[in-house]
Amino acid sequence: MFRWSRKVSLIVAPHGSPRSWSRDVSAPALFGIGAALAALLLLVLVLLVQVAELTARSREVSRLREENADLGSRARSVHDLEAELARMREFEKRIRRWAGIEFSSGLAMGEGERGRHRWERDENLLAEMPTLPPVGGWVSRGFESGPEGHPGMDFVGETGTPVQAAALGVVKLAGWDDTFGNLVVLDHGNGFTSLYGHNETLLVEPGDLVPRGQAVARLGNTGRSSAPHVHFEVRLDNEPLDPAFLLSSGT
User: Fold this and answer.
1) pLDDT higher than 80, residue 139
2) Which domain holds residue 144?
3) What is the DSSP secondary structure assignment for residue 115, as one 8-state letter?
């Protein structure tokens, strides 16, 4: 029968060495050492399981954050699309009021048989609407709505390029502006105006009657500008419109 008072000899003999090491350990001490080792092993296993769970949770949190960011981006895209649609509807209302076309909230302009009220492009009507691009250069920045947005379009071109009137109009302003440099503003009647900024030189004077396509200035880099371009705006009743809507309809 095993006695707790007995001792156990532990002998360590390295291979190939004549020396050996021995120590007598009591049975209770040996049992205690074994229990401690078992507890330590159990603790290590528990820690490993917890680390694995934390790693899995961290990955799940990262995945949820990515999904959250993706949902936020989609929500912003939907909001932007809704804002763009509202802007287009408001633009359509203004054009209909200006052209004397009946507006119905259930009728999209030019759809189906109910499109009998569709606004048909007429040469005289188009002549008074700013539908002609001021220059043939590429657009470096488009229209951006909002107080901090960009109320027009920037057309890049070479200095000296003729800047043409987007429609028949009377020169309302031709002079210097601290922001737009050499500036031309045309009044097209019926609430429509167009603005041409950052010009190198001006070719018209206030009061001049300018036909559609006539050069009113030469493209430049004046005012608050970092490169040669023309800043082009279209306004209806002094409210900025996205020129792209009109330019695409006039080409």
Assistant:
1) yes
2) 121-250
3) G
